[in-house]
Amino acid sequence: MTLKPTDVRNIAHLARLHIDAADIDQYAADLSSILDLVDQMNQVDSSDVEPLSNPLDATQRLRDDEVTETNQRDKFQQIAPDVEQGFYRVPKVIE
After folding, report:
1. What is the pLDDT of residues 82-95, one digit of tens each?
2. Rounded to two decimals, what is the model's pTM?
3. Residue 40: C-alpha distances to residues 45, 46, 51 (Å)
């Protein structure tokens, strides 16, 4: 798929991006090559390939879930600007 400079301008407008006029031809070429690569990847038969959760097929070493810090909620709420029933109160930001 080959993108034209007008396509790049439209994409930039929709994405609210400012692109210099001198760079539009290079963006069109770069984006066209990316779309060609995606098209090549879509043509590969991957029906016999099982999905992986990790490309290295490795497992993570997990540590025991232990509390390592003391509860300091009361200390921090003493210096908070507004607290009610153990919760931090914040101003309403959505109307």
Report:
1. 999 999 999 888 87
2. 0.52
3. 11, 12, 19
For 11-68, write each residue's pLDDT tens digit: 999 999 999 999 999 999 999 999 999 999 999 999 998 888 777 767 778 889 899 9
Q: Enter the tokens of residue 74.
A: 């009361």
Residue 71 has pLDDT above 90, yes or no: yes
Q: Which residues contact 35 (CB under 8 A, 6 or more apart)?
A: 1, 3
Q: Please provide the size of the chain in residues.
A: 95
Could you give the C-alpha distances from 69 to 6, 65, 72, in angstroms and in order? 58, 12, 9
